Amino acid sequence: MMPPKSSRIGGRFGQLGTMPPNSGQKEIRDVLLKNIDLQLADRDLKSGGVQDLVFDHVMINERQRGAPAAPV
User: Fold this and answer.
1) Please, are residues 27 and 52 in contact by the beta-carbon 8 Å criterion?
2) Are 5 and 34 within 8 A, CB to CB?
3) What's the pLDDT tens digit per position in 10-32?
4) At a CB cut-off of 8 Å and minimum separation 6, what does 48 contact?
5) Which of 53, 5, 7 minimizes the C-alpha distance to 28?
6) pTM above 0.90, yes or no
7) How far apart are CA 68 and CA 11, in angstroms?
8) Per residue in 41-66, pLDDT tens?
């Protein structure tokens, strides 16, 4: 199965946002964010409950960004 992905996103925003699981889900798995170039006031992504989040060519405020550490 192909992972869900978001790609070719650019612009200026306040924040990257939140990735919570849907109601009744414990986690989200295998998410790919690819070819993203953003200018953000708040560059943190709230990704609690996301397993195997991959960033591929993600630039935040002109710096290469890796995926946040997996929740423990």
Assistant:
1) no
2) yes
3) 888 888 777 778 888 888 888 88
4) 20, 71
5) 53
6) no
7) 21
8) 887 777 777 888 888 898 989 999 88
